[in-house]
Amino acid sequence: MAEMELWFTEQQTPDLGFTCKITKTIYTAKTQYQELAILETKQFGRMLVLDGAVQTTIADEFCYHELISHVPLFTHPNPKKVAVIGGGDGGVIREILKHDEVEKAYLIEIDREVIEASKKYLPEISCALDDERAEVIITDGIKFVSENKNMFDVIIVDSTDPVGPAVGLFQDSFYKAVFECLKEDGLFVAQTESPFYDQDLIKNVFHAVKSIFPITRLYLGFIPTYPSGLWSFTLGSKRYDPLEVDISRIKRIDTKYYNPELHKALFALPTFVQEIIK
Ligand code: SAM
């Protein structure tokens, strides 16, 4: 008898699914905030899924984690104190700690169980969470940011899609609180979904950030397991412009996607994306 095949599908839009073969269901849980699954996939290795949406996989996590971390950290000339909002898998913390000048990286994650499952089943991604420069705070990022002023050089918003507890992470009031939470020359970046499927979201976030921060930029990257593959990041900065960075001074660190030559090139937008943020 032929062995039964198991397939996981993320419904990326009401009319489109992303399907991959599962060799093992490693772990599932219903947490206080979301449904969590760790799956072993044939194509991408282990995969973290929250509420049916792929968060990260062993094979392509470097694309997302490097892009959301190194662009802001190499734009700020001296990032000492950095916060990640969300990011419970630990991938962004691992990338941040590749920067020697970072003294402390805080992970502000609402769901403790995402961190615990990632530590247990995704050690390649979560490996830096026990580093002495890392501190994990379990709380709502919206509350944390609104209660702390003038505290960080860089804030990285590594959120889930705008559903459930992450809805508020895409709202104007949150970006105002992020502005206040940053030091006087601070900057932040947020993942802002796909330019193919989430044009209204990108437009709204870009204009909200632009009304608060003196410098607002959008950049793009390729992440195979995210809807459409093409992904956007919105950066708001009080002083430093990523396009003004002297790339000859960017240190070579161990990366697979990011490099100094890409730093400014990531901000060169296809015409249809330029139209979205006009
Ligand atoms: N890179 C992923 C993506 O784009 O799909 C996101 C990875 S990370 C696992 C996202 C995390 O954000 C989740 O663990 C979720 O619990 C957390 N999160 C959602 N809303 C939050 C909030 N309001 N405060 C803090 N963390 C939040």
Automatic annotation (TrEMBL):
<keyword id="KW-0963">Cytoplasm</keyword>
<feature type="domain" description="PABS">
    <location>
        <begin position="5"/>
        <end position="238"/>
    </location>
</feature>
<feature type="binding site">
    <location>
        <position position="165"/>
    </location>
    <ligand>
        <name>S-methyl-5'-thioadenosine</name>
    </ligand>
</feature>
<dbReference type="InterPro" id="IPR029063">
    <property type="entry name" value="SAM-dependent_MTases_sf"/>
</dbReference>
<dbReference type="GO" id="GO:0005829">
    <property type="term" value="C:cytosol"/>
</dbReference>
<comment type="pathway">
    <text>Amine and polyamine biosynthesis; spermidine biosynthesis; spermidine from putrescine: step 1/1.</text>
</comment>
<comment type="similarity">
    <text>Belongs to the spermidine/spermine synthase family.</text>
</comment>
<protein>
    <recommendedName>
        <fullName>Polyamine aminopropyltransferase</fullName>
        <ecNumber>2.5.1.16</ecNumber>
    </recommendedName>
</protein>
<comment type="subunit">
    <text>Homodimer or homotetramer.</text>
</comment>
<feature type="binding site">
    <location>
        <begin position="158"/>
        <end position="161"/>
    </location>
    <ligand>
        <name>spermidine</name>
    </ligand>
</feature>
<feature type="binding site">
    <location>
        <begin position="140"/>
        <end position="141"/>
    </location>
    <ligand>
        <name>S-methyl-5'-thioadenosine</name>
    </ligand>
</feature>
<dbReference type="Pfam" id="PF01564">
    <property type="entry name" value="Spermine_synth"/>
</dbReference>
<feature type="binding site">
    <location>
        <position position="109"/>
    </location>
    <ligand>
        <name>S-methyl-5'-thioadenosine</name>
    </ligand>
</feature>
<feature type="active site" description="Proton acceptor">
    <location>
        <position position="158"/>
    </location>
</feature>
<feature type="binding site">
    <location>
        <position position="65"/>
    </location>
    <ligand>
        <name>spermidine</name>
    </ligand>
</feature>
<dbReference type="InterPro" id="IPR037163">
    <property type="entry name" value="Spermidine_synt_N_sf"/>
</dbReference>
<dbReference type="InterPro" id="IPR030374">
    <property type="entry name" value="PABS"/>
</dbReference>
<dbReference type="InterPro" id="IPR001045">
    <property type="entry name" value="Spermi_synthase"/>
</dbReference>
<feature type="binding site">
    <location>
        <position position="89"/>
    </location>
    <ligand>
        <name>spermidine</name>
    </ligand>
</feature>
<dbReference type="GO" id="GO:0004766">
    <property type="term" value="F:spermidine synthase activity"/>
</dbReference>
<dbReference type="InterPro" id="IPR030373">
    <property type="entry name" value="PABS_CS"/>
</dbReference>
<dbReference type="Pfam" id="PF17284">
    <property type="entry name" value="Spermine_synt_N"/>
</dbReference>
<keyword id="KW-0808">Transferase</keyword>
<keyword id="KW-0620">Polyamine biosynthesis</keyword>
<feature type="binding site">
    <location>
        <position position="34"/>
    </location>
    <ligand>
        <name>S-methyl-5'-thioadenosine</name>
    </ligand>
</feature>
<dbReference type="InterPro" id="IPR035246">
    <property type="entry name" value="Spermidine_synt_N"/>
</dbReference>
<comment type="function">
    <text>Catalyzes the irreversible transfer of a propylamine group from the amino donor S-adenosylmethioninamine (decarboxy-AdoMet) to putrescine (1,4-diaminobutane) to yield spermidine.</text>
</comment>
<dbReference type="GO" id="GO:0008295">
    <property type="term" value="P:spermidine biosynthetic process"/>
</dbReference>
<keyword id="KW-0745">Spermidine biosynthesis</keyword>
